[in-house]
Write a structure and sequence with these properties.
Distance between the termini: 16 Å
Number of helices: 3
Shape: rod-shaped
Low-confidence stretches: none
Order of helices and strands: HHH
Mean pLDDT: 81
Number of strands: 0
Length: 85
C-alpha cells in the first residue's frame, strides 16, 4: 500500500536536499540521486498545491450564497480530505 503524500514532510525533505547540495560535499552520483528525489517531491507538492487551490477557488465561488445541486436535486458536497488528496 502506497503511503499518503504529506506536503509538510515533503517540503521539509526538499529543504534538506537543498542544504546538502549547496554544501558542496556531495558526490556527483549522490547529487543526481538527490536531484531525482527533489524532482519527484516538487511534482508531488505542486500537485497538492494545485488541488488545494482548486478547492479554495470552488469555495470562493460558492460564497454568493447559491446552493449548487446535482442532477438528483441534492446539494453538491465534497469531502475536505478528498479535495486535498
Amino acid at each position: 500500500m502506497e503511503q499518503e503524500f504529506n506536503f509538510e514532510r515533503s517540503f521539509s525533505r526538499l529543504e534538506e536536499i537543498l542544504e546538502k547540495m549547496n554544501s558542496g560535499t556531495v558526490s556527483l552520483d549522490e547529487s543526481l540521486k538527490l536531484y531525482e528525489e527533489a524532482d519527484q517531491l516538487i511534482a508531488g507538492c505542486t500537485q497538492k498545491l494545485n488541488r488545494a487551490e482548486a478547492k479554495i477557488e470552488k469555495l470562493i465561488k460558492k460564497r454568493d450564497g447559491e446552493l449548487q445541486i446535482d442532477t438528483n436535486g441534492l446539494p453538491i458536497s465534497e469531502s475536505f480530505v478528498e479535495a486535498l488528496n
